[in-house]
Amino acid sequence: MWIYVLISIVIVVLAIILSIYVIHYNKFQVAIIKISEAEENISILLDKKLDTIIRINKFIEEKNEEKKIPGVEKLDKKGLNSFDLKKELDKYNKKIIEITDYNKEIIFDDDEVAILDDLNDLNIDLLGAEKYYNDNVVIYNKLIKCFPSNWVAKICKYKIKDFYSNEKEEIFEILKQ
Fold this sequence. Notes:
177 residues; 0% strand
């Protein structure tokens, strides 16, 4: 009789452990899917931003050869990851702003102004995509650090993911403590 009670208790405990594992595994899967979705969106937006910057650089070159930003065309052949590509594109974006806003000798027609507006819209879209990515990375990284989901992370060999901005990274470091 006692053996049946003991076996029943073991089965119940195993069922509870298994259900906890499945719940936390599913939380990881949801976070991974959202992060992958955000990474894809960011990649598409970064490609559009690169194409837009190349187009802007070409009409800057047509208007004033000296103001052309060197190296933009080679950027897509470097094989950079999204984090590095974003940093490079932000540098070129800053140079474009300096050229377009502070050089009164370069006058742009309506089509060129529309392309400059497209660049601003892409920057806003990228900020939104990065926020979505960072918010989901915070969730994912918390799952890796917190009990009992950290056991699932160890079993599945999940690693901490990087953020797109230092702001979220600092928040995560505070939450770790």
